Amino acid sequence: MTDPTSLIGELVFDTGPLSHFAEAGWLSVLRSVAGDTPVVIPEVVAGELRRGAGSHQHLQLVLNAPWIQHRVLDSPEEISAYGHFASLLVSGNRNAGEAAVLAYASIHRGTAVIDDRVDRRAAHAAGVSCRGTLALLCDAIRAGLLTLPLVEQLADHLLETHYRLPFPSGGFAEWAAKNDLF
């Protein structure tokens, strides 16, 4: 279990968590959880957000957030890492953001914030530090940054945005306790 203040390097976010937190009105919680840790999105993720912003206005909140830094993968090392993760994860137009997140985190020794199990397996296999969004929230509860009732409400709001979580509405506390997350 990780204390949010001990995460490795920058927090490198994928599109999903940012999109759903913004849609649910909870984007600022991610800023609070990050604290002084820089939050980064690769340009591939920013592109995904821009493409959706016309029909999903909440995505513009993510793009305009001054605490989220945009990074282009352009060094030979970054491009090579992206090629590696893309070969494992990208299918058609899917998972390019996840591949970019893992590539950036691997080269810059950051912590990838991704929720998809396949992507996390790829991160672990490559030795890339990664955390799921729910794990970050549980870390923040343990560190006293957030309260259980607040995160229960937040989780229910994420479910209302159709975010795939491993429990039903009202089930966060039971799920977290069952998985020994606090």
Describe this structure in words.
Helix content is 57%, strand content 9%. The radius of gyration is 16 Å and the shape is globular. The chain is built from ten helices and five strands, in the order βααβααβααβαβααα. The chain is of the alpha/beta class and 182 residues long. Mean pLDDT is 94; it is low at 1-6. It has helices spanning 15-24, 27-34, 43-53, 58-64, 76-89, 96-108, 117-126, 133-142, 148-160, 172-178, and strands at residues 11-13, 39-42, 68-71, 111-113, 129-131. β4 (111-113), α7 and β5 form a beta-alpha-beta unit.
Give the strand order, joined by hyphens, for the main sheet.
3-2-1-4-5
* Biggest sheet overview: 5 strands, parallel
Q: Any idea what the shape is?
A: globular
Look at the helices and sheets and give the structural class.
alpha/beta
Could you report the average pLDDT, rounded to the nearest whole number?
Answer: 94
- Would you report the number of β strands? 5
Which sequence of SSEs, written as H and E, runs from N to C? Answer: EHHEHHEHHEHEHHH
Distance between the termini: 9 Å
**Content of β-strand:** 5-15%
Tell me the quaternary state. Answer: single chain
How many whole angstroms does the radius of gyration measure?
16 Å
Estimate percent helicity: 55-70%
| Helix segment tally | 10
Give the low-confidence spans: 1-6
Give a brief rundown of this model.
The chain has 182 residues and is α/β, with parallel strands linked by helices.
